[in-house]
TrEMBL record:
Single GO MF annotation: UDP-2,3-diacylglucosamine hydrolase activity
PANTHER family: BLL8164 PROTEIN (PTHR34990:SF2), UDP-2,3-DIACYLGLUCOSAMINE HYDROLASE-RELATED (PTHR34990)
Keyword S-adenosyl-L-methionine carried by entry: no
Organism of derivation: Flavobacterium terrae
Record-linked Gene3D superfamilies: 3.60.21.10
InterPro entries in the record: Calcineurin-like_PHP (IPR004843), LpxH-like (IPR043461), Metallo-depent_PP-like (IPR029052)
Domain of life according to the entry: Bacteria
Domain Calcineurin-like phosphoesterase residue range list: 8-205
Name of the protein this chain belongs to: UDP-2,3-diacylglucosamine pyrophosphatase LpxH
Keyword Nucleotide-binding among UniProt keywords: no
GO process annotations (BP): lipid A biosynthetic process
Record key words, sorted: Cell inner membrane, Cell membrane, Manganese, Membrane, Metal-binding
Amino acid sequence: MKKRKVELVVISDIHLGTYGCHAKELSNYLSTIKPKTLVLNGDIIDIWQFRKSYFPKAHLQVIKKIITMASKGTKVYYITGNHDEALRKFSDTFMGNFSLLDKLVLDLDGKKTWIFHGDVFDASVQHSKWIAKLGGFGYDYLILINRFINWCLHKMGKDSYSFSKKIKASVKKAVKFINDFETTATDLAIDKKYDYVICGHIHEPKIKEVENKFGKTTYLNSGDWIENLSCLEYNNKRWKLFKYQESTISNIENEEEQLFEMEHLISSIQL
Ligand SMILES: [Mn+2]
């Protein structure tokens, strides 16, 4: 298969090592691209929620694909997030094409581009329980139970249903949190004269131009690989929000894997 050349790809919030992670779909996507630069913008390996017993092949496959990319010439920047902050003590490590960082500034065709995960705003943005939930075990189980229900719905020929998306949309606080996050990021970016500010963290993919009385900037969020299956691509001076085709996502494709996940759910409930 001929791979699509892309100048820059930004991916965040993969959460490898959790039930919610769509590693197989991400793996499929990674097989189709050949980026010059790949930025992994935080929460890639979920060290917070890491269970020794849960790291399926598909999750390992994602890591392998990224290492292969780096060995074939892709410049890989791994920016740490709150779920992989254990890696922060190794920040500013450079090995060949691979760099481990807290934040990154790139020059994209003369535009100043500021990239960081975004958890740094958790203290300044009004405290929200929603964001704490994104990091909790409860959220991971909610996703897993949701998948099981969707599997049943599919068998009955019905459409899938997303609990957490519904919760997120209906809870005013969650909406306010997202707005506050974006405002905080863009105010700072305008103040620092960045043309683009790129975050992850809040699992809300977006590209929007923002203007305040001091100037303007473009806010970009790469989303996540739990629910939105999204990332950012930059090519020929243009940004695109990539979304993995909904129709190609089967919740749990492989019978064997599905059994594996269900056994896990049952054994963890028994605990
Ligand atoms: Mn995060």
